Amino acid sequence: MRTHIVLAAAAASIFALFTLSALSGCGVESVGTAATAAAVKKQEIEQGKKTMEAAQQKLNEAVQVTQQRADSAAEEK
Fold first, then answer.
1. Is the entire prediction scored with pTM above 0.85?
2. Per-residue pLDDT tens for 4-13?
3. What is the rounded CA–CA span in Å between residue 17 and residue 70?
4. Segments in 1-77 forming alpha helices (H)
5. 51 burial class (0-12, 13-18, 19+ CB within 10 angstroms)?
């Protein structure tokens, strides 16, 4: 009888160990997936900032050209 109790306790410990290993593996995978997603989002944000800066620069250049044309037209009158 005592042997059965010891074997049952050992089996329960082994089952708990496998269960914890499986669950911790899922957690590690989730953390890795979240880190990858965060890195992708960061890259998207950086690219968006670069695109916005380039658009702002083109807009500033267009305003400058328009101002120069307006100044030239005013001088000709």
1. no
2. 566 677 777 7
3. 79
4. 2-76
5. exposed
